[in-house]
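Example record used in the benchmark description.
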Amino acid sequence: MITNYACPGNLASIIFVRPFARTLRTGPGRAGKRMECAIALVLGRRHGHSQPMRATRIDTIVFDLDGTLVDTAPDLVAALNHSLKFLGRPVVDPLLVRALAGQGARALLEAGLALSGDAPEEMIRTAIPVFLDHYANNICANSLPYPGLDAALDELQRMGFKLAICTNKPEALAACLVESLGWTDRFAALIGGDTLPVRKPDPLPLLTAIARAGGTRAIYVGDSAVDVDTAHAAAMPSIAVGFGFSDVCASQLGADLSIEHFDLLADAVRTIVAAEPSRGAPPAPLASDQASAAA
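Model output (structure tokens):
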């Protein structure tokens, strides 16, 4: 279950003042040691000594957030245009910056300012907290899950997979979005861009998401080259979606498979799992009558 976050009006300013403040919670104590061991198992190493990767099965599906699970572009571009108005600059056509929607406030502000003149660093620094504050207060005003998502997630859970999120969005904002969509109990883990000292495409966020979800091996589903590179770095298979923010065709991103609608996700997962016969699929959940008999 994902930790519940309150979504106060000053959330964005907190994130801006303390970027990358959270570190991996693997300090002294049993809980920290369990997390270290879980990540070591996913990495195929223990106590710093290399050893062959165990023949683990795919038991987890990890998703990127913006542009993969949710079309957040309307609210992100609205925050950009609010910031441009604050700076006295003209607003931009959403279509001109949509491809940057998943790259964060700075990238959007740089592009938005460049469309009407220069983009000085001082102006960008001034605008970032304005952007984040507006976005935090309107985080799910017009953002929507992509068509077919809920049915696809239901099917993956019926197949026995754990679900998790790994995003470069700040963790508190990501958790607020997930909560606003009613998904707090849907995903077993959420790793944000400031949860750890490193971000995607470093493999550690993905590996940590798998470990915190209680999994050992995963398929990573995303919409960008960064997502595919992250999966490659973690030695995990990936699925690219063609309906996200990337201006590169999904089939050209280098993922194991690509899909154009969530109706195709379960079959894509089955195809990848079938290609790993030595590991096999996760066990199907027991039907209610079987569970009663087992009890």
